[in-house]
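Entry 14: structure prediction run for ABC transporter substrate-binding protein. Input pasted below.
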Amino acid sequence: MQKIMIGVGAAAFNFLPVFLAQHLGYFAELGIGVDVRRTGSTDAATKALLGGEIALGTLSGLCVG
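Run finished. Output tokens:
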């Protein structure tokens, strides 16, 4: 199983699809292990993405990777 780290700026409704997909097992169905990291802010998530700490960032409702 491939494992990736997804960073989210904060726990808010616009990030709900990531949390739901993880909770409902959609990532696992696709053979993807996902760790969701709450970075606390969009700026911190952007820095983590650019620094290679996360593979995918959900910023202000958009997925960037």
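Notes: The chain has a mean pLDDT of 84. Will compare against the previous run tomorrow.
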